[in-house]
């Protein structure tokens, strides 16, 4: 469970790019964070994960405040950033062991977990190579594997499906479903409506830093039909596919 209460953020004291957001992201459902480019998705995710501090409001993850009890809060989640070009000089396996070390995963647990994820993502033969030799999709997959190696209850993923080949996207979607079937949390951002429609149980729609809608997808469609400004955003997100 992730809870945001009255969260706001400005960069350099300028206009608020996130304005008074309140959101409850429950367990047991895949929640899509949907909005056009520049809407404030990444900024919000950076505040949830403690990379940025919010100017106002509070954020908690499974009850731990990300700013007041940050270590406990950070143990609760795995985070996949939108840019997978990180730790490029490490070999895949070195990166996974590094992440497992940070989160105190035992040797036996990490072996099982790495074996399972590399089989599902078809990465077993690449783990001995440096990440800089990987394709974009492979870099994304190793980031996902690193984020999930400690089996966090809460998954936070920023545009995780962009650039993944169809098979890997399918695998990740299946993993998200399995995770929420175990009553855990999956929160991921996308600017592509089609992705949200294929994966999410519920969506939260953000535009210009404000939450415009939260609810189920069929409710969203009805909402779009009856609201001109939402319809415009809907079109923008469809065009971005
Ligand atoms: N470091 C920064 N300094 C100043 N403004 C920023 C900074 N980072 C983001 N912004 C601005 O904040 C707004 C929200 O950006 P953000 O990256 O959160 O949007 P987003 O919804 O994730 O977009 P995208 O889908 O393009 O990634 C944008 O107007 C962006 O230009």
UniProtKB/TrEMBL annotation:
One of its GO terms (molecular function) is ATP binding. The keyword Membrane does not apply. PANTHER family: ABC TRANSPORTER ATP-BINDING PROTEIN ALBC-RELATED. Keywords: ATP-binding, Nucleotide-binding, Transport. InterPro entries: AAA+_ATPase, ABC_transporter-like_ATP-bd, ABC_Transporter_VariousFunc, P-loop_NTPase. It comes from the Bacteria. This is ABC-2 type transport system ATP-binding protein. SMART domains: AAA. PROSITE patterns: ABC_TRANSPORTER_2. Residues 2-233 form the ABC transporter domain. It comes from Serpentinicella alkaliphila. Pfam families: ABC_tran (PF00005). The keyword Iron does not apply. Signal peptide: none annotated.
């Amino acid at each position: 469970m992730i809870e945001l209460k009255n969260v706001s953020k400005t960069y350099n004291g300028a206009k608020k790019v996130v304005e008074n957001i309140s959101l409850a992201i429950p367990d047991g459902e895949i929640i899509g964070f949907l909005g056009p480019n520049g809407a404030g998705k990444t900024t919000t995710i950076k505040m949830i994960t403690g990379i940025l501090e919010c100017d106002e409001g509070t954020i908690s993850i499974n009850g731990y405040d990300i700013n007041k009890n940050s270590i406990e809060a950070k143990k609760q989640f795995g985070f996949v950033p939108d840019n997978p070009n990180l730790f490029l000089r490490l070999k895949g396996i070195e990166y996974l062991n590094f992440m497992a070390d940070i989160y105190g995963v035992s040797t036996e647990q990490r072996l099982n977990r790495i074996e399972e994820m590399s089989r599902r993502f078809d990465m077993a033969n690449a783990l001995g190579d440096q990440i800089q030799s990987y394709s974009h999709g492979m870099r994304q997959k190793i980031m996902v594997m690193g984020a999930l190696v400690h089996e966090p209850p809460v998954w936070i993923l920023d545009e995780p499906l962009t650039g993944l080949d169809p098979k890997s996207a399918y695998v990740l979607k299946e993993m998200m479903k399995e995770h929420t079937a175990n009553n855990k949390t999956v929160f991921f951002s996308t600017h592509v409506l089609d992705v949200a429609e294929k994966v999410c149980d519920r969506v939260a729609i953000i535009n210009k830093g404000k939450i415009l809608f939260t609810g189920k997808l069929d409710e969203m469609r009805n909402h779009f039909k009856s609201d001109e400004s939402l319809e415009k955003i809907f079109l923008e997100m469809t065009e971005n596919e």
